[in-house]
Amino acid sequence: MLSIAGWPVEVTCGEEFTVRLPNYRPFLVSGAAALPCAVLCRVETGCRVCQETAAPDLVNELEARTLRLWLLPGECCVALTLRENGRTYWIRADRRWRAARTDWRPEADEDYWLLNDFVMLAFTYSAAYRRTAVVHASCVAAGADGCAFVGASGIGKSTHARLWLRHISGSRLLNDDQPVIRCMENGEVRVYGSPWSGKTACFRNEGVRLQTLFFMKQASRNKAVRLGGIDTFRRLVEAASVIALDAQSFAGISGTLAEVAGSVPAYELQNRPDVEAALLSFRLFAATRD
After folding, report:
1. Structural domains of the chain sorted by starting position, each given as residue range(s) with its CATH number in brackets
2. Helix-strand-coil split of the chain, %, nearest 5
3. Which end of the chain is less crowded, N or C, counting CB atoms within 10 A of the terminal residue's CB?
4. Rounded to whole angstroms, how far apart are CA atoms 141 and 208?
5. pLDDT tens digits for 128-184?
6. Angle between helix 247-261 and helix 229-239 axes, rounded to 10 deg
7. Distances (CA, A) of 164 to 32, 53, 63, 215, 234
8. CA 162: distance to chain centroid?
């Protein structure tokens, strides 16, 4: 059993799962450590899965693999194909991704990264219905609070996070690519580390209060512009892991992001990659803490 952003996630793959995919080790919990909520999603491996022959609703070319998606009445179907050898694995799930079955069986080491993709898909789209969203950001924490640097690849998120680690005493990296934002029942918005952190090996099973959002913009001078709720929401949707043509999950994720945009202070951080930019964002972050 895994615990990701406080949600129980079950993957039926045996002990080899976390041996071959060490990014999941910090999220592994024993069966005796019962979590205070029902299982968010279950991914069952080694199953018989019917393949689709119709044209897919979506084709996405990922690094070294191709994803095809079918949105069907009552269920979703995904095929992942390794471009190097043409091997394809399939997964089917109910429309809320609470139960997913895949024909995945390990034939080579690289196959485990396809299972990693399947688990991430299952988590992202099952969490969509539980006020939880995965976003493309770099997240740092200081004490019990954190902030997220949001933006497209290459915009400077990781660089700014490293400036914090170097110059802001007591700061720590929570996640460098795909943190999880969750709206809690008490109205608090929290951000969590996840098993998916891009090229940076930072897999913290930890959550903090999300205090500030910074949307990164490269500039010739350092300046922060406060954003309104609508602009914040629009930018969060652009940064979220979401398939827009899937109206059901899009509604869930966008509802969560609207809640975040209405409660977490956000800024456009026009910045240079220097210490002054890090100090500016830290001052704004510190000003919003209790």
Report:
1. 2-127 (no CATH), 133-287 (3.90.228.20)
2. 25, 35, 40
3. C
4. 7
5. 999 999 999 999 999 999 999 999 888 899 999 999 999 999 999 999 999 999 999
6. 140
7. 38, 50, 29, 16, 26
8. 20
